[in-house]
Amino acid sequence: MSAPLLSVRDLEVHYSLPGGLFGARPVLRAAGGVSLDITECSSFGLVGESGSGKTTFGRALLRAAPVYAGQVSYDDGEARYDVGSLDAPTLRPIAAAPSTSSRTPMPRSRRARRCATSSLSRSRL
To answer: Which segments of the chain have a pLDDT < 50?
Structure first.
């Protein structure tokens, strides 16, 4: 079995809230203990109730939300990257690769188009 395209292990996002007694700041746990693997040419849907942390989780994958704990790694077929240790110029093309949509998936990356084309040709058999 090949390595997953995207691998997430024990991802947690916490936000410090203002206030608190004696300098202790309360913490909001927005996403906690999330682990998953997404393989190449697969579809993945993240569903949940309003306010359950779906957007926060997605933002944390791209380092647009503060990651408290956990690891996110991406494998482009040539190298495996620890997303948390990448600088902005290196992260930018990786962040643009996945096709994300709230309703209708439209493949944007070359890999996504190849997978979509492969799926369409198999479905005509």
So the answer is: 119-125
